[in-house]
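Lab notebook page, bench 4
Experiment: in silico fold of construct C2
Operator: M.H.
Input chain length: 205 residues
Purpose: comparison with the prior construct
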Amino acid sequence: MVVPTYDEIENLPVMLERLHAAAPQAHVLVVDDGSPDGTGTLAQERADATDWVHVLHRTEKAGLGAAYLAGFAWALARDYDAVMEMDADLSHHPEDVPRLLAALADADVVLGSRWVPGGGVENWPLHRRILSRGGSFVARLALEMPLRDATGGSAPTAATRWSASTCRPSRRRGMYSRSSSPTVRSRPASRWSRCRSRSPSVSTA
């Protein structure tokens, strides 16, 4: 589980506790961009005290996409069975993780969707719903793939389908793109997930 952080000292302990309760078999990699509020120190303390929390310390705030790329590379180098991304601000529900991971038993890619029956968002203004659904619609047409939610996170992927070539930096700082080839050549499976607006701390790694 790759979790980028920047000033998430309030949310991170709660997220780790809920995630471990929901999926005790999962390991978490906290990718911290030098949070001035001490998030990286807190994460390191948890890592020193457990065998399922790990930390990747970065010296500058280089962006969310770069943090995910660093986390994916870290996981691939250690031969994990699957890689999943999750926000630290509790906008994703850790309790949905087991359902998403279980779907990897018969799929190579599992996408958590907010826009299928059972999914949803909490406390989102109308303009944000329109942007999310509109962006997904455009991506679905452009990629010619049946994706209901192309803008959400929480996407566990079988690690055997990933390589350094499937993720590449974007020209825009802090962004990254995932090649469509793993999805095109593999067996995708959508699962519903829920999302809420950000909790007290705001991560903009």
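Observations: Confidence is low (pLDDT under 50) at residues 169-205. Residues 2-196 form a domain with the Spore Coat Polysaccharide Biosynthesis Protein SpsA; Chain A fold (CATH 3.90.550.10).
Next step: discuss at group meeting.
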